[in-house]
Amino acid sequence: xxxxxxxxxxxxxxxxxxxxxxxxxxxxxxxxxxxxxxxxxxxxxxxxxxxxxxxxxxxxxxxxxxxxxxxxxxxxxxxxxxxxxxxxxxx
Length: 91
Prior knowledge:
Elements lengths: L2 H14 L4 E6 L6 H12 L3 H14 L1 E7 L1 H13 L3 E4 L1
Antiparallel strand pairs: 1-2, 1-3
Helix pairs in contact: 2-3
């Protein structure tokens, strides 16, 4: 097996082992922009600008991926967002 073939095989294996998930926040008619922004800053460690951009995307497109990573990393963040009254899920 050539070096190039080994590299391709290694990359293919790494892609298969990538368990990244997305934490998605959905639009609702309950929460204010300020609440969504403050919650994203507190829970997801967003900067104010990043949180504001996510809130705008949620409002105009219906949803926004606010964090990605392993399921185990995202689960407590999702729970905190839900506890704050936001609509969120891990995909």
